[in-house]
Design brief:
The chain is an all-alpha fold. Helix content is 75%, strand content 0%. The longest helix has 38 residues.
Amino acid sequence: MMPSFQSILLAGAAAMLPLGASAHAAQKEAPVAEVVAAPVEDETAAPYDSEAAAAEAKAKMQKEMDEAIALVEKMFDTSSLPPIDPARLTLAEQTTAALIPAGSIEKMVDNLYGKMFKTIMGEFGGQSDLMLSIQTGVESEQIAKLDEATKAKVADMFDPHRKEREDQITKVIKPLISEVLGDMEPPMRSGLAKAYARKFTGAQLTDINGFLATPTGTLYANEWMALQADPEVMLAVIKAVPPLITKFIDRAPELEKDFKDLPKEKQLSDFDDKELAKLAKLMKVDVKLLKEQRDQWNSATDDAVEATEAVAVEAADDYAVDAAADAAAADVATAAAAAEAVDAAVADPAYDRGNWSAADLKRVEELETAYENASLAAQQAAEEAEANASKRSKLPNN
């Protein structure tokens, strides 16, 4: 449970950063003067602060969340789990009601306010070395030499009301976070109750509930979640991360060798007729379809090899650079024409890949992949030919 709780805490703390500071940080990563053209606004788009824009943003977020939830549901499928005994579930609900009392998640978040949240506020606040460097253009190392009182005076010159502003942000945002965290408690209790009901017997749950009803058990139930965000715990977790990363770095050569030893994945072009027949039977499709796909793949690969050889021979000429430039220009023109064709066909549902059959989509994607590989190979061959031609031009008597 701790990783998910920590994610909640980090998200909440990030949300409570000073709005002005986060805006400056996003807009100015380095104190370099630069003229940037104003973005062209879409006249048809809804204003940023309009109800339509808000509804569109919510709909987009909901779609993304639905996709994420569907993925998690697939990863943690509960449909095959045995049914839960109602009596055990009732006991487990008593357990989780004691373990997650109202306000317990917020209490854990509050446990971080004095440390992580205030530290983040300080790092991104108007008095931090980072923000003063962004605002003034002076290197952070130079600002670090100033005492805190001087930094405060500099920050006050930019925003005399920064303290009140940060306090107001906290005052406005914190209740919202508290409300959100409170909304999470009921579903968390419900899910945890089901897990406890499957993990523990009725007798064991009765014992646990008996302990939680004692003074010591009540204290434990009220504090166990908040203690997960205790500074000692957080510091221990953070300190454990570098050794973990170091182990992966140290063993990278070994891991790379293990992966290289694995046989390469087969492509459809590698299948013989017998294998295609077996594949067609498994997929319940006509073997002719798979043969057509294989032949198209092989044809595309052959074309790619021929194109690579042709480019290499042509580029070997002393005028390879000019030829490559002409080819690049032709590619740009072709791409522009293709873009115009795509724009013109946007309204036609036949161009929407979502309306294509699975077989058609698979065939197109395979050919596109083969085309991309051929284009890359041709480009590399042209570059090598140009380099060879350049070397020859520098040789004596050439």
